[in-house]
Amino acid sequence: MKIIDSRVRLRTETMLKAWTTELKPYYRDYIGLYKMKSRLSVLPVGEFIEHAAARGIVKMVACGLTREESGHVLELSKKHAALIPVCGVTIENGIRYAMRDIQHYFEAGAAAVQVLPYLGKLDVHDRQLYPLYGLCELMKKPVIVHGSIHFWRSSTMWHGQPQYFDEIAVDFPELKLIVSHGGNGFGPPMLAVAQRHPNIYLEFSALNPTYMAPEFLYAANTYLRRKCLFGTDYPLVDFDVAIERWKKVLRKDVAESFFHDNILDALYGEPQGL
Fold first, then answer.
1. What pLDDT score was predicted for residue 24?
2. Which residue in 43, 149, 164, 205 has a CA-CA distance of 20 to 30 Å to 181?
3. Quick one: pLDDT at residue 77?
4. Is 26 exposed, middle or buried (0-12, 13-18, 19+ CB in 10 A)?
5. What pLDDT score does 128 carry?
């Protein structure tokens, strides 16, 4: 079976800076929690892709957060067809600059942009972010938004509550929203939001299905089988570990959608209108 990983960070010097030489407080706890040390050394992109391919991963969504990282993944994606670039956007320097970044990233080949509002201690439905959502809706491009528990204890976990995503989807009915980490920690309400809105997808990277609420596994196997995406958030979780965990809990008839087809629909499919 061919697999597309919907969320990875590459092991290049540029992408590892945040984990090694410029450790941010919101990264610190993750290294121990996910036992990441063995995956935080530089690995050339070609070897990284071969390592993933040996596990059946034919493509991966390479995510950048900063402008430097985003430019880096865009350049690498031009050289390596296995990489699908996603670029990070923040409003810390002003909304108009963020909107310029969005336009530039999509013109340069980004498949989506990602927003992590909790890093700025903002709710995902904060009106400061609405111009960004509106521009992406206008350009018919998806936005990946963090919407689950996180482990940076200087910012509350409540910035990404399910009801906030419902409000965004109501206000931007043709915007494709990929909820990073799938609402983990907020329980079944996120499932209801994804069921209610055709343009909302749940990406389950960095999660161990053994510890997820059973309602999420049932949804992934049944009524949300076209809306749930496989991901590792490597280097948080190793490819082998993530793949084997999910294979144990997925029905055989939904595995291809979960591991491959749904991410292509989320990134490239036509958004549904009212």
1. 67
2. 43
3. 98
4. middle
5. 96
Tell me which residue range forms the domain holding 179: 3-268
Domain count within the chain: 1
Q: Is there a domain that residue 229 lies in?
A: yes
Mean pLDDT per 10-residue section of the chain, whose length is 274 residues: 96 89 69 84 96 97 96 98 98 95 98 93 96 98 92 84 97 98 93 98 95 96 98 95 96 97 97 81
Residue 251 located in a structural domain:
yes
Q: In the block, which residue shows the tokens 């079944």?
A: 188
What's the CATH number where 121 sits? 3.20.20.140
Q: 100 vs 95, 107, 122, 175, 251, CA distance in Å?
A: 9, 11, 21, 18, 43
Name the one residue in this structure whose structure tokens are 């970044």.
Answer: 101
Give pLDDT, residue 21. 67
What is the spatial distance between Cα 231 and Cα 238, in angstroms, rounded to a whole number? 10
- Regarding beta strands 112-115 and 83-88, do their DSSP bridges make them parallel or antiparallel, or are they unpaired? parallel
Note the pLDDT of residue 22.
64
Q: How far apart are CA 230 and CA 211, in angstroms?
A: 16
Alpha-carbon distance of 178 to 161, in angstroms, equals 14
In this predicted structure, what is the pLDDT of residue 178?
98
Asked whether residue 274 is assigned to any structural domain, the reply reads: no
Residue 30 is predicted with a pLDDT of 78
Domain contains 273: no
| Region class of 194: left (phi > 0), else alpha (psi between -120 and 50), else beta | alpha
Helix or strand (DSSP H, E) at 58: strand 57-63
CA 196 from centroid of its chain's CA atoms: 20
Q: How far apart are CA 70 and CA 262, in angstroms?
A: 24
